[in-house]
Amino acid sequence: MSVIAHLRIPASSFELGRILEMEGGTSIVLENLVPLGEKAVPFFTVHDASRDAFEKNVRKHPSVESIREVSKHNSQTLYALGWAVSRDLFFQAIVEADAQLLSATGTSTTWEFELRFPTHTALSEFQESCSNGRIPLEVGRIYNPTKPGTGPWYGLTNTQRDTLMRAVQGGYYSIPRRMSTKDLAEAFDISDQAVTERLRRAIITLVENTLVAAMDDEFEAVD
Question: Which of 32, 31, 11 is nearest to 22 (CA)?
Fold first, then answer.
């Protein structure tokens, strides 16, 4: 099953961070990382206010082969960078782990990444590669993506979510049970049968959008 990880890394500890060094409070957004043969071409946006100085600094970096303006929109310019990714242990580890770049934003001091790894094993191997390369990687939130389109509450309606949370927190599922179906029904001003049906639907929805979705991902990975 795929896993998403939020990472933080000092800009000075990986090659691309040093190449794309920004001044002051200016930030840069890495839009995509496209593998082309043995290369990985990053696409990123820069605010026009710092564009000239940025281009000058990037072009003179020894790892840069080319920098190309792709498009402009409002006050931002989208660039494509040709560089020697093999010299960047951090991005080489991303490529080798077959990870997908979801988001990345950098400043003069720090970069933050959101990466999707095909498996937990791939994430562990990526972390090991960074450790071996002495890259000070700070790993934040790690989670499994749920079934697409389910939203932040895994497809639950507000009433299903509130009822299920009240049931769990009130001890409905505890042994011995501290809350009855009648207590729940009175709390939401509905019948015993209605609250039982609401809980049943909520549990089915949760299972389908988490456990079943995770199992489907594992089968797809095997195929």
Answer: 11
Predicted TM-score (pTM) of this structure: 0.61
Domain boundaries, the chain: 3-143, 158-222
Strand partners, 47: 76
Rg over CA atoms, the chain: 24
Task: Give CA–CA dist 99/115, Å, rounded.
Answer: 6
The CA distance from 26 to 105, in Å, is 11
CA–CA dist 2, 116 (Å, integer)? 7
pLDDT, one tens digit per residue, over 38-95 is 567 888 888 766 777 788 888 888 888 889 888 888 788 889 998 877 788 998 899 8
Which of 140-144's residues contact partners 24+ apart within 8 Å by CB, and which partners?
140/5, 140/6, 140/7, 140/8, 141/5, 141/6, 142/3, 142/4, 142/5, 142/6, 143/3, 143/4, 144/1, 144/2, 144/3, 144/4, 144/214
CB 198 within 8 A of CB 161: no
Spatial distance between the Cα atoms of 197 and 29, rounded to a whole number of angstroms: 47
